[in-house]
Specification:
- By secondary structure, the chain is of the alpha+beta class.
- The chain has one domain: Electron Transport, Fmn-binding Protein, Chain A (Pnp Oxidase, Chain A, Roll), CATH 2.30.110.10.
- Helix content is 25%, strand content 33%.
- It is built from five helices and nine strands.
- Strands 1, 2, 3, 4, 5, 6, 7, 8 and 9 form a nine-stranded antiparallel β-sheet that branches.
- A hairpin with a 4-residue loop joins strand 5 and strand 6.
- The longest helix is centred in the N-terminal third of the chain and has 15 residues.
- The protein is globular, with a radius of gyration of 20 Å.
- InterPro entries: Pyridox_Oxase, Pyridox_Oxase_CS, Pyridox_Oxase_N, Pyridoxamine_oxidase_dimer_C, Split_barrel_FMN-bd.
- Its cofactor is FMN.
- This is Pyridoxine/pyridoxamine 5'-phosphate oxidase.
- GO terms for molecular function: FMN binding; pyridoxamine phosphate oxidase activity.
Length: 213
């Protein structure tokens, strides 16, 4: 398979220092709203979460952003999953939003910590009932013999909790990623992409730098 000629030009927009917000959360919010409103992205909240386990082995997977503010970015998962095990061993993580239809990418690096159980409970019970039952049925990342076994467990729980509130599993909840670093990437003509980073300083201020493509 030859991929040498698989390429396209990036001419949609330019990113200039003069238009950047001083606050990276505000800059992210601006891009995020544009991504949602563009109608070009099926899952604008989807991002790649990178973690590293105790042996130094990196892992990546797609998760969904459920909230963000000045304190960080929130997603939910099973704490007993591979990502949960990795974060327990090493709380340094990285996020990557690939909004390729807009010729934009955002990289974020920081530390992950669990949100309160109250926050997790509130979100869990706001989910569709089928999603709640799915979370209860699955021991995420653990081996299973067949899909039939998983679906049987799901249907048993559906019957068990008919007419009742589905309990949130003890091993399920949210993480908040507190950023220390952002990079905003805009595809550029001649492959001269625009890249700007925000790095948090010890005093809490953000330093903005342009990087060469």
């Amino acid at each position: 398979m030859k991929l040498h000629d698989e390429r396209r030009d990036y001419e949609r927009a330019q990113l200039r220092r003069s238009v950047l917000r001083a606050d990276p959360f505000q800059q992210f919010g601006q891009w995020f709203e544009s991504a949602k409103e563009s109608g070009l992205l099926a899952d604008p909240t989807a991002f790649t979460l990178a973690t590293v386990n105790a042996l130094g082995q990196p892992h990546q997977r797609i998760v969904l952003l459920k909230d963000f503010d000045q304190q960080g970015f929130v997603f939910f998962t099973n704490y007993a999953s591979q990502k949960g095990d990795d974060i327990a061993a090493n709380d340094r993580v990285a996020m990557h939003f690939a909004w390729l239809q807009l010729e934009q990418q955002v990289r974020i690096e920081g530390r992950a910590s669990k949100v309160t159980r109250e926050v997790s409970e509130a979100y869990f019970h706001s989910r569709p009932r089928a999603s709640q039952l799915g979370a209860l049925a699955s021991a995420q990342s653990s081996p299973i013999a067949s899909r039939d076994e998983l679906e049987q467990r799901y249907h048993e729980l559906t019957s068990d909790y008919e007419g009742e509130q589905v309990p949130m599993p003890d091993s399920w909840g949210g993480y908040r990623i507190e950023p220390q670093f952002f990079e905003f990437w805009q595809g550029g003509k001649y492959r001269l992409h625009d890249r700007f980073t925000y790095t948090r300083q010890a005093n809490g201020e953000w330093v903005i730098e342009r990087l060469q493509p």
